[in-house]
Amino acid sequence: MLQAPPCVLSIAGSDPTGGAGVQQDLQVFALHGVHGMAVPTALTVQSTDRVHKVLPAFPNVVGEQLVALLTDVRPRVVKVGMLATDDVLLRVADLLERFAAPRVVDPVLKASSGPWLLERRAWGNLVDRIVAGAEVVTPNLDEAEWLTGERDPERAAPIFLEMGASAVLVKGGHAEGPADDLLLTRTGATWLRASRRVSEGAHGTGCALSAAIAAQLALGVSLESAVAQAKQFVEDALGGAFKVGRGAPLLRLRAPQFFTRST
Q1: What tens digit of pLDDT does each residue of 220-261 get?
Q2: What's the CATH code of the domain at 218?
Q3: Is 195 a residue whose pLDDT tops 70?
Q4: Is residue 251 part of a domain?
Q5: Which of 106, 184, 192, 255 has the most CB atoms lying inside 10 A of its own CB?
């Protein structure tokens, strides 16, 4: 029997378009050569142009899925995305403490089309129970501002480290001008430069980036290299973005050719 690939778990919402959420995470994991697993936290009524409705999963069902899975299979890395409600978040947090693994946290708060994807009363617990202890957190500028009160990446990023994260990647896709990202770790800061593409409004870029980081960490890539390579993965996907409906284009995900795996 062949050696099993590293396992990566996505805990996130469902997107029936396949352009984000657990459906996209599993595509990203497969393209990176890791085995993807997923526990959905919510169903969404969603098209390519907007999120119509969010239907959170029962917290005990999310918990039972995680217990059954994690007592059998231990993921190398966990990617945490949309959590929907405070009750779901707390159940996930309890089990991530019980079954510890490095986690990449994409603090999904609001859909681009407007609906909130994490209820406001949960934001404190998101910081205290999910962001704290994370390997890396990947907020966009809006999420960074909502959670820290600061929109400037150089002022917002240190606050995430004060919250207890080991590193933060503040994404610049919502900024005017270049789509530069700031990676801050406890050893220093790095700007990852990028020009803005016409397809920058494509659906699912944040999900794809955090999933790619998680996959590469599971393969033994250093955080700095994982972030840089994940950003290139998303840049390549943006270059082939396509439309299948009335709304935002979807990413054309392609297997990365630029890995630097650990030895």
Answers
A1: 999 999 999 999 999 999 999 999 999 899 999 999 975 555
A2: 3.40.1190.20
A3: no
A4: no
A5: 106
Q: Which residues contact 100 (CB under 8 A, 6 or more apart)?
A: none
Report yes or no: 172 and 180 within 8 Å, Cβ to Cβ.
yes
Asked whether residue 13 is domain-assigned, the answer is yes
Phi then psi for 116, rounded to 5 degrees?
-75, 140
Query: HSE (CB half, 13 Å, CA atoms) of 132?
Result: 12
At residue 84, the 3 state secondary structure works out as strand
Distance from C-alpha of 220 to C-alpha of 59, rounded to nearest angstrom:
32
In a domain, 234, yes or no: yes
Torsion sign over Cα 163, 134, 53, 67: negative
- Interior CA angle at 238 toward 198 and 110, to 5°? 85
Q: Which of 40, 35, 24, 38 is nearest to 76 (CA)?
A: 35
Please enumerate in sequence order all residues whose Cβ is within 8 A of that of 202, keeping only pairs 6 or more positions apart, or say none. Answer: 237, 238, 241, 248, 249, 250, 251
Task: Give how many domains the chain has, as a whole number.
Answer: 1
3-state secondary structure 105-136: ECCCCECCCCCECECHHHHHHHHHHHHCCCCE
d(Cα 71, Cα 240) in Å, to the nearest integer?
A: 40
Q: How far is CA 151 from CA 7, 35, 172, 199, in A?
A: 35, 36, 10, 23
State the pLDDT at residue 174.
54
Containing domain of residue 25, as a range? 7-239
- Tens digit of each residue's pLDDT (9 = 90 or more) over 103-140: 999 999 998 878 899 999 999 999 999 999 999 999 99
pTM over 0.85: yes
Is 225 within a domain? yes
